[in-house]
Amino acid sequence: MSKKVVFSLTLFTLLTAFVSGAGAGVPSEITVQGRLTDNVGTPAAAGPKTFTFKVFSAYTLGTEIWPVGPGEVQTITTDASGVWTARVGSILPLGDAVFAATERWLQVTVYDGVNPPEILSRIKLNTTPYSYRVSTVDSAAGGRLTGALVVSDVQLGSPTLDGSLELYRNGSTLPILTVQDYSGLGGGLACFTDKGKPTAVIEPDIDGPGGYLAVSRDSLGNPAFYVDGVTFGSSEPEVGIVGSSRSAVFAMEAVNDNDAVVLPANSISAPEILDESGIAATNSGVSTTLTTAAMIDIDTAGITIPSSGYIVVEGKAFVNCSGTTSSNIATVQMDETSGGGVTNPYAVYAGLSGYADGTANWFPVYVTRTYYKTAGTYTFRMEGRQEPGSAGSADVWWPMLNATYYPTSYGSVTTLVSSAEASSFEKALPVVKLASSDPRTATASTQYYQVDLRELELKAARLTAQIERAKRELIETQIARQAALNQRVSELSGGER
Q1: Whose CA, among 225, 392, 410, 466, lies 20 to 30 Å from 205?
Q2: By C-alpha distance, which of 266, 182, 253 is closest to 489?
Q3: Among the listed residues 302, 301, 248, 238, the one whose alpha carbon sits nearest the alpha carbon of residue 270
């Protein structure tokens, strides 16, 4: 050319190409438009011309970033106004590294076939070309978005490729959030501190087709709260709150309903508070004629207790001894079994060895007995007999019977037991028990033992503590198994925890 060529450059449509072409592969090119004129503004002659494109790191000098070598050469036809359009990168694709820095300059060389090739002033690439980096996800080795990104739909992976996501905090070498496949069991989400310690996880349950959620309570990743959708393959959920020394568990897989909720000792719903005192009572209003044979029932009371504890059985009645002036004595006592003989010291005697006449003689009686029982249903009876050798008749009127349950004791609860029963106690103090049921002729001969029923309560408490410890160890084992799976998944995915 005989005149100086002036180059005007306009960049456009790159963002449009990225958005519209993202689904089918984004073009790795930039659309460039310019106008060739001489030094007084007259358009260059219309026709084909040779254009060479290069990208540099600076306005002058600098490093050739793309394509490194002769450049991308295209034959482009200018129109009568000198206007031309080129698709830079259509022959030699623009790689991701082209826009990896903040400054890139496009250099255009024009040769019209007559005048020597002319290198035009470099043009800085701004905004739209830089958004090209967003479109190079398929093969990009890296990149950074520093502003807000709004996307209507995101797919990580495909039916033939596992997908995953990692979120980092600035300055942290480990991810603070991951979303990934858990060894073919399903998708999981895990949150971490910047030191790699788990803070919360939502993941597949290793025991079956369910989910598992856990929240940590300290920097070591120790669990504070968990929801196990499939507890050890039972198809029943379990929820736990785990502290450093105590825990609360809601276990729907428990066989026993009483084990479905396990709370710390002395909490508002601990066994000794939840199992409040209760009473069962009878007042039949019937009379019973006693015989000199075995004990017969005067009245009975049944009670069901929710947990181990004490049952205090109390009974009152009136005994009418009549029909003789000779000896006429009745015995009334508390017992669990029907029939049998007198069981001291739980028997009360009513009557006299002689009477002024054979009319009615009324005697009030009160009997009581304390038991320690485990959870269950029990029946207690007020029973009586007319003592052998008695004349006349002995009738029991207006009996009343109460059975009261107490979950715990607040002092000693002593009673007398036989030699056979004494073997169940660690401390049994020997005492002498009257052998005869008739206090008038009794002799001291039979050996009995004084014991404290609280020993049975302590044994039950120790057993409960052992069960609670076993449950806690089971929970810890379950959590450890889930944590081991997390570690394994992390190792398989190439992460460090």
Answers
A1: 466
A2: 182
A3: 248
pTM: 0.45
Q: DSSP 3-state assignment of 323?
A: coil
Q: Which two tokens stand for residue 160?
A: 């033939």
Q: Name the stretches of the chain with pLDDT < 50.
A: 1-3, 8-25, 129-130, 135-137, 269-273, 440, 496-497
pLDDT tens figures, 15-31: 333 333 333 445 578 88
Distance in angstroms (rounded) separating the CA atoms of residues 397 and 362: 10
Number of C-beta neighbours around residue 118 at 10 A: 15
Whether residue 70 has a cis bond before it, omega within 30° of 0? no
Query: What secondary structure does DSSP assign to 93-145, as a single string?
Result: PPPGGGGSSS--EEEEEEE-SSSPPEEPPPEE--STGGGGGGGGTTT-S----
Q: Is residue 326 classed as helix, strand or coil in its secondary structure?
A: coil
Architecture of the domain delimited by 278-406: Sandwich (2.60)
Q: Would you call 484 helix, strand, or coil by DSSP?
A: helix
Output DSSP code: residue 343: -
Q: Is 6 in a helix, a strand, or coil? A: strand
Q: Which residues does 62 contact at the CB level (< 8 Å), separation at least 6?
A: 56, 105
What does the alpha-carbon distance between residue 296 and residue 348 come to, in Å, rounded to a whole number?
A: 15
Question: DSSP letters along 409-473, please?
Answer: -SS--EEEE-HHHHTT-S--EEEEEESSS-TTT--EEEEEEEEETHHHHHHHHHHHHHHHHHHHH
Rg (CA), the chain: 48
Each domain of the chain, given as residue ranges in start order, spans 6-136, 165-264, 278-406
**Backbone dihedral angles phi then psi of residue 237, each to the nearest 5 degrees:** -85, 165
**Cβ-count burial 326-340 (b if 16+ within 10 Å, e if not):** ebbbbbbbbbeeeee
Q: Are 333 and 384 in contact (CB under 8 A)?
A: yes
Going by C-alpha positions, the residue among 8, 34, 13 that lies closest to residue 127 is: 13
Kindly report, residue by residue over 88-136, the tens digit of the pLDDT: 999 999 887 788 888 999 999 999 888 889 888 898 887 554 455 554 4
User: Strands 198-204, 187-192: parallel, antiparallel or unpaired by DSSP?
Assistant: antiparallel
Q: Residues in the chain, how many?
A: 497
One of 2.60.40.10, 3.40.190.10, 3.40.120.10, 2.10.50.10 is the CATH number of 6-136, namely 2.60.40.10
